[in-house]
Amino acid sequence: MVGIVLVSHSAELAGGLRALLLQMGAEAVEVAGGTAEGELGTSYDLVLEAIQRANGGAGVLVLPDLGSSVLIARAVLEDHPLPGALIVDAPFVEGSVAAAVTASTGADLAAVAAAAEEARDVRKF
After folding, report:
1. CB-hemisphere CA count at 13 Å for 105?
2. What is the 3-state secondary structure (H, E, C) of 29-96?
3. Taken in order 54, 57, 58, 63, is the CA torsion positive or negative?
4. Is the torsion defined by CA of 46, 52, 53, 54 positive or negative?
5. Which of 9, 53, 57, 112 has the fewest C-beta atoms under 10 angstroms from its C-beta?
């Protein structure tokens, strides 16, 4: 199954979203939220560790929330290339839900990434 990594400036935000995804049937969801000291921010080391944990062989989809989390996730994958790891430009919550639901069907990385990115166009009402 494609692994999903949620990268956020907030451990609480990432952890809460992970809990939601697990309740919806997702299995391989890891988080890198906040700093190692428990502060707001993004930790290079936490992102690297989360990507490594999520890598079950079917690919890893990385969903950052905003700003520096995108830059750090990119830097991690540039420094530690992992075939089958992909960062997507998708809404953090809606994209994560779409990715997790799609991954839970056994879809491949391209389909999971497309679902996350398509979530940008889904209207709430």
Report:
1. 11
2. EEEEEECCCCCCCECHHHHHHHHHHHCCCCCEEEEECCCHHHHHHHHHHHHCCCCCEEECCCCHHHHH
3. positive
4. positive
5. 57
Report phi then psi at 82, rounded to 5.
Answer: -130, 110
Global pTM?
Answer: 0.95
Neighbours of 84 (CB within 10 A): 14
Which of 9, 11, 41, 102 is the catalytic position? 9
Residue identified by tokens 């809460």 is: 16
3-state DSSP assignment of residue 57 = coil
Which of 79, 33, 82 has its CA nearest to residue 59?
Answer: 82
Active site residue 9: yes
